[in-house]
Amino acid sequence: MAFKKEVVEIIEPRDVFVGNVKAEVTLEEFGEYESESCAKANEIVKKLLIDYDGRIRFNFRHFPLTNIHQRSLKAGEAAVATAQEGKFWEMHNILFANRKNLGTTSLKLHSKEAGVNNKRFLDELVNATYGWQVQGDLKEGLNRGVKEVPTFFVNGEKVAKPTYDELSKAIELALKKVKKKTPVKQKAA
Asked: Rounded to two decimals, what is the model's pTM?
């Protein structure tokens, strides 16, 4: 008798967006949840999402600096776990708000606050079920030249500084490029 192996599709961090998911301009951040700089950048991102409502989408990629922040890896795994229930952004903001309290038990409590109902959440965290996804983000970040957090990209172009002004300039430039590519409809004569 053969056993049927269950295949579980995992929602990857690169596929999780907030904002207009169909927007042609993507703001992407490589960051981690224990970093004070990333927490400040998260507030900038929230403002950008309001200011460019409907015109951009945001994607957060995990880049845990485990030599400085030992709990950032598990926090990233917890965020990926919540994405499986469509609660990534809720957890994302809760993790930043509680960045000094990211132990495994705390992560379980944070997931409940985010609205996650997964009874196996703690087991998945302890067993690093989503560790490969976080490691995949880290590897991609390294391949793209990320050395520190936060590091931002707008439509794949690295942004020099993670300030509101620099990010909005990059977004404006990307929006202009997208507009130029869009064909103008000719009026019938």
From this structure: 0.90
